[in-house]
Amino acid sequence: MQSLATALDIPLSTVERWARQGRIPIQRKGNEAIFSRAALNRWASIHQLTFDLDNSPNDNPSSETFDTLLAVMKRGNVFHHLKGNDKNEVLRSVVNCIDFFPSDVQNELLEKLLAREQLASTGIGNGIAIPHPRDPISRAPASPFISTCFLEKPTPFSAIDDQPVSILFLLISPTVKHHLHLLSRLSYCIRDKAFVAFLHTRPEPQALFSHVGALEKQLDEH
Amino acid sequence: MKRYLQQWRYPGNWSLFRSDDRLLLIIFAIIVGVCSGLAALLLNRGLESMLEWLHHYRAYWWAIFLPAIGAALSSLFLDKIVNEGAGHGVPEVIYAVSRYGGLLRLRSSFSRLISSCLTIGSGGSAGPEAPVVMSGAAIGSNIAQAFSLNDRQRVALVGCGAAGAIAAIFNAPIAGMVFAVEVILGEWSTMNIVPIAIAAVAGTEISRLLKGNQIVFEHLQFTIHFHDILACVGLAIFCALASIVLTRLLRFMQRYSKDTPLPLWLRAAVGGTMVGIIGFFLPQVLGEGYHFIRSAIEGGFTHGLILVALITLFKMIATSLTLGWGGSGGIFAPCLVIGASMGLSFHRLIASLWSNVAWVSEGCFALLGMAGLISGILQAPLTGIFLVIELTGGYEVILPLIVVSAVSTTLCHYIEPASFYLKDLVDQGQLLRPGTDARVLTDLRIPELLETDCICVHPDLRLADFIPIVKASHRNFFPVEDRSTGHFLGMIHLDDIRPYLFDPSMHHAVLTGQVMDTNVKTVSLYDDLSDVLQTMDNDRIFSMPVVSDSRFLGMISKATILDQYRKELIIQTGPF
Description:
Helices cover about 45% and strands about 15% of the residues of chain A.
């Protein structure tokens, strides 16, 4: 009875009343409720009620969990010595690093990244930029990733503090929700001055990840 | 063996009926129709033998006290032995159908039979139909309960009982069916009509088997001209007037007798004595009065206009004296008598005014008057039309019949918006026809609409500690509870504290107890939803806290109400 009420998205007491009033094909026998799935399905379709007994109630989207920043960064990998003399060239070489994308997706991504940069630069100061498409790309990956890219030489990026950029975090996410979640975590890390200084030493992946992990732990405890 | 019997108690669970109970209902409809038909015949026989037995005493002067004795006995029986209210019982059936899914007591299936037999048999001016309807309905309801059928099936069987009873007592299956659907259930759906039709057939068949296929009033051939139909409109106006006068008179008598400081049975005796006095001079007003109708239709009633008009008037007075002062019986038969005498008077009137016009015989006008009064009093035009057609077995009168019924119903509806049966229920706000707003709102209870996703806070919380709670909540409302007793203190609405939330200097200075609204309107778990909505509309609020035993239980909001309301409406009005 409870599972039925959940499947119909109706309070249990309503289902019990309907059964008593004979408005739903359920028979009572003492404390038991007898119903046939086919009859209920027919009943639901006649009354245009959404009804799916097989769906487990845990599937609802509100309880979806977000990945940690660390996991997302590990998924995106770290790239060193990226070449390029201006914004376009740098972004082109960043996109080329994402080798698991087919080339047409890469082109779409680059286009969207450039469009976003036209709108306003993603350079957030201190030589760091977080390029990302404005809305999810058409063939977005199932889970988000952040690729950390260290440039060979600082490149002018028309950042807010007009400093040339040498560190890029390419942020690709399947939904806007994921995007905001990761962006908020990433910017928490970048607000940490020690972390920014550490980034400018162009650390190896292992050192970077352990630092990010520590910062994220700090954020969660906060 | 016990298990086998147990199986029989739940026919709704048999695999044959599980997904579709139409066959089940039809089978039960036959049983109910037969039983209520038998009940109707029983009352009929009882009345006949009682009339015969008392007939010899009519000549004595003390016969005027006979109705008093009968009414007092019937009132005593109802009040002391079976503990039921007086009256005819049809409103009770409608009330049970609309409020309790047709739940009726077992004793109702015989109590009205006995009490109305006493009242009418002794000469009280009332009809045997409403008591029989009550019995039939109670039989249907109790059969449904015995087999644990659900509310919808039970309501259908209550209708079956009423239909079977009317069909049996008048030998009129269509009238029974139409009456059950039009007056008792108020809902035309194939789910109900099929079993009710079956029950009407079963009831009629039982009465024909045991009583013979006799039509209550002899069928006569009428030739109706156009000017007769014109005259019908005039008759309909008179019928409507008579209906309204009778309704008012009955209600007046009821109110008046309520204010009389006498025990119930004595009140009935007072009413009965007055009826007896009237009956001493005008014996036509006594009893159910079918004999008078028969002679009126056949044209055997030869007295003049004044006497017929007097009969009309005094029948009304006698009926309201009998029923209003505590006698037991129905309004159907008196309506027929009043209608017939009304038709006669009208015919006498127009015949004397336009004596050169060839009017159709006065019997026809008596018929039309009957239909007009039934339609006017019950505000059920179809019942009036079909009843009169079946009572007389004549089809020729159908055109003027429809005119009279329609005009009379419409006029009565202008002056008395609720019919005689429904007036009390409408006054109490208890008339809940299926598929109406009131019906849906009564079925939906507040516990079904409760939203429990609010986060409760304590009044001694600092604003700084309150902010994480705001972050975690999906709602704009935060109920405040006392820390030690758990009692509901008030609500915090996000709109009220928004200015302070973003002011860090306030975070440590303000307590939740200071910003809460202690003057909130609350709802209790068992409030009527229509009242809740009324309050919401009046105060222009969108949601209200539900508080029971000064404990917060959840919120109730218009959004959830709309969602559930729509589902409920789909379920109630859709096909099964």
